[in-house]
Amino acid sequence: MNVKIPEMMDRPEVLLRGNFACAGCGLSIAYKTSISALNRPIVVIPACCSSVIQSLHPNVAYNVPTLNIAFAAHASAASGIARAKKMRGEDTTTVVWSGDGGTYDIGLSTWSGAAERNENIIHFCYDNNFYSNTGAQRSGATPRGAVTTTTPRGKREKRKSIARIMAAHDIPYIATASIGYLRDLYTKVKKASMIEGYRFILIDAPCPTGWNSDPAITPELGELSVKTGYFPLFEIEEGKLTFSKRGIRYKDPINRLSIEKYLEKQGRFKSMTSEQTKLLTDDLQYEWDMLSKLE
Amino acid sequence: MCSCLSRKEEAESLGNDSRVEVKEMVQSLEKPQTKLMTGAEAVATAAKLSRPQVIAAYPITPQTKIVETLSGMVARGEMDTEYINVESEHSAMGAVIGASLAGTRTFTATSSHGLLYMGELVWWAGMTRIPVVMPVVNRSLNPWNIWPDHQDAMAFRDAGWIQFYAKNNQEVLDLTICAFKIAEHHKIWMPVMVCLDGFILSHTSAQVEIPSQAIVDAFLPPFEPLAMLDPDNPFAHGSLTDSEGIWEQRMSLIDGFNNARVLIPQILKEYTDKIGRLGDYLIEVTGNIEEAECAIMALGTLGEEAEQTVEFLSEKNIKTVVFRLRVFRPFPRKELISLIKRVPRLLVIDRAVSFGNAGQLAIEIQAELFAHKVDVLFYQKIMGLGGMDVTYADIAVEVENILKEE
Ligand SMILES: Cc1ncc(C[n+]2csc(CCOP(=O)(O)OP(=O)(O)O)c2C)c(N)n1
Ligand code: SF4
User: What CATH architecture applies to the domain A14-292?
Assistant: First the structure.
């Protein structure tokens, strides 16, 4: 599938001006690109930065119907919406829009249930690697070595592989994407929207506020995460993984930029020791190896 | 014959030779039927008659039979309902909140630890006013046991839900049907809990009159959403709100309960007029209030047990009366006070405790007595925790002790 640039230029405004997002917020870019690609979306948002950037009631920056719900209730609420709209015979697209905390950690059970039932939902997880809304605490998505307010000396554990956990549910479509490659993201969302059942899209979404990075380089960080092999781009359909065109060359470590190029631009990695960097590099290679087994 | 046929299809499949018989069978569906059924079956039957469009539930003893019965009805095509087999109670309430806001009539049921696990979303439904109906089969909390008491539902008395406590299986059925009409009244628009004692009602068979589908349809029109998630008219539900907005929302909830106080008796009356039996009262009075030396107050089946006490004691020439609260939220203050003013003594029995204080019902009634300067001798007793058996004779002993003490 190939989406032409003019089509992307022509998409509806789903996130209005005056919203509360920080300058250079990666999740806002991910939201605009993803939600605008969908037909009649209804979006469920658990507690996260996305529940804040919508602005203060009665103003609302989201130009699509939005249900705010408790942190661990996104996929269940979306299941209810999807079934109700089916019952009413209405043509809508039910969406979960969650952070990594909501997906990797507290909401794991709710989405696992919905995925097992193969509910007709597209689940987006914008991954900024931690809890940004509550002020930068660690999550299951935080990489080894990253400093957060609850891992002041750098996280000791490796990052969870949510894509492989999701893949174990054998849902019809899984994709990863980065805000550094918007056409790739948009195309994957379009593709997902043509499939029925539980679909999952994980989006690498830098958070300059919590990562302590320059807001002006957010898209660049999105690119670097792919080019350094930090964030592999792929799709999984019917149990088979395909690395995406934009990222497949980074499967071979020879083609990757050095990980330091990515780490040095972010305050959260400033105090990484060389030993921590080595462990992180090993984690990344391990993930590539595990993903390659699904090819 | 295939058991998945509905009775009507079954009748039709009998063929031409039995036309007369078919007609009679179809007609009989229009009349009320009387059946021996458990409280759990009464809930499921009431739910079926109320035509919920989305059900999401998770099993827990002694609620299990409700979800099993409803899943069977949906699977056999007897109900036009989306049934979501969620992985937890938290998700059950999450799903009905989503389904309700997407414009459908919703139903779930739970008990005990299930209700506690659902807790965050029970409050979510209460504060954002989701008109879902949820029977709670009352069961005690840990250590593990499955015995009845009211500790589970009492933990949610402040959650913005209307709470009914039923005394028998007939009332379970009638109140569950009414609960939909009450929850969905546009001037109420809030969730309703129908509480029934675990095992005592849920697993005990009793005679229940079941109204016909046609008559329930005439009482309960299809779901009419007040606000709906709709791509043609986008809005954000439950978004970030400032203090003023929260204040405004809470005040509107208080108004909603005030409306419910007035409207519940009207809806119960309409049900009674159209369908029968129930009565429009919030507090059931059993016994002669004018002669009573002592009034007994209790919820659910303890209230019904106390009704037996009245008869039992009258044989000993002790005159008592029972005030059984059928609705606990909204708290029927006015009705209570006007009744209590007419008796010299009041014994309040609680099947739950607010630890560190006293039984919830007793605490709340004392507050009203003080506010209205009611001159009554007040007694309280906690009974039946963890399913401890409470008989009419046990209640009689309490009354006799009170009278002896003086
Ligand atoms: C049950 C519950 N526990 C804790 C919180 C506090 N809380 C709100 S948002 C959040 C973190 C969200 O992290 P994530 O999902 O990664 O989204 P982000 O903030 O990064 O956008 C936490 C811990 C909550 N709202 N509810
Ligand atoms: S804290 Fe990070 S994720 Fe949250 S709005 Fe700001 S930049 Fe975006």
Answer: 3-Layer(aba) Sandwich (3.40)
